[in-house]
Specification:
Number of helices: 13
Radius of gyration: 19 Å
Distance between the termini: 22 Å
Helix content: 40-55%
Number of strands: 9
Number of domains: 2
CATH class of the largest domain: Alpha Beta
CATH topology of the largest domain: Rossmann fold
Order of helices and strands: HHEHHHHHHEHEEEHEHEHEEH
Largest sheet: 6 strands, parallel
Structural class: alpha/beta
Oligomer: single chain
Shape: elongated
CATH architecture of the largest domain: 3-Layer(aba) Sandwich
Strand order of the largest sheet: 3-2-1-7-8-9
Length: about 260
């Protein structure tokens, strides 16, 4: 980071973090990209530039013929997710929670890296691709179990009842889970500082959550390498990688 950033926006943000009592983190694909997980739209190598979301992530197509998704899972998704590890940004948020500063992480990501880093209260707006469930009997499976099954069965049936398996993620055409939305609304209403991290803040309704927190009286800090539609609305902008900035904010907590 440049000396100017350290002297102004970062210093002010560190002071905000040190003085806050109920911080909430709202995270998007940018923090996971630092762990090697491709973003969906932001760059030439993004996922939906290489794979048609209307085939691989549409609920109507999945219910009609899930072979498209399970081929994608077998050849791409499993390897990417299983090899990814939490980065310093994830770890810094878990540290802030352990210190009693961070109330919750609200995430658009489906990779489970916040939990892997040690965060306990994680509100997954779009689900978690590491969990796979039978739509008929609700039996749950791990990614590893289903990946092994795909060597001989495509698409993979439930081994208990033969029903259709589906990853616990929100496909295009599905609504966000109401329980997650309600929990997110509660923590946003109570927070005094929201850190919006690695999100373009363009996909609704999740993208409106930073505004919801700010209108409720919380401070708003946006940590994102590229501009967002809410930059003029934020109290501080830190256009840097999460893994670079968040450890510095966690240090402010420990210094306090």
């Amino acid at each position: 980071m440049s000396p100017e950033s350290e002297d102004d926006a970062l210093a002010r943000t560190r002071a905000r973090v040190a003085g806050a009592s109920k911080i909430v983190a709202f995270t998007g694909a940018g923090i996971s990209a630092e762990s090697g997980i491709p973003t969906y739209r932001d760059c030439d190598d993004s996922l939906w530039r290489r794979y048609d979301p209307d085939l691989f992530a549409n609920i109507d197509v999945f219910m009609r013929d899930s072979t498209y998704y399970w081929n994608f899972f077998k050849d791409v998704r499993y390897q990417v997710i299983s090899s990814a590890r939490p980065n310093p940004g994830h770890e810094a948020l878990a540290e802030m929670e352990r210190a009693g500063k961070l109330s919750a992480v609200i995430t658009q990501n489906i990779d489970g890296l916040h939990r892997a880093a040690g965060s306990r209260r994680v509100i997954e707006l779009h689900g978690n691709t590491r969990r796979i469930s039978c739509l008929a009997c609700s039996r749950t499976y791990s990614m590893e179990e289903v990946r092994e099954q795909l060597e001989t069965e495509l698409p993979p049936p439930c081994r208990i009842c033969g029903g259709k398996l589906k990853p616990d993620v929100v496909f295009f055409g599905e609504q966000l889970p109401q329980a997650a939305l309600s929990e997110a609304a509660r923590v946003l209403a109570e927070c005094d500082l929201l850190l919006a991290i690695g999100s373009s803040l363009q996909i609704y309704p999740a993208a409106g959550m930073p505004q919801q927190a700010k209108l409720g009286g919380a401070g708003l800090v946006i940590i994102n390498k590229t501009p967002t539609p809410y930059d003029d609305f934020a109290d501080e902008l830190l256009p840097h990688a999460a893994g670079e900035v968040l450890p510095l904010l966690a240090d402010a907590v420990s210094e306090r």
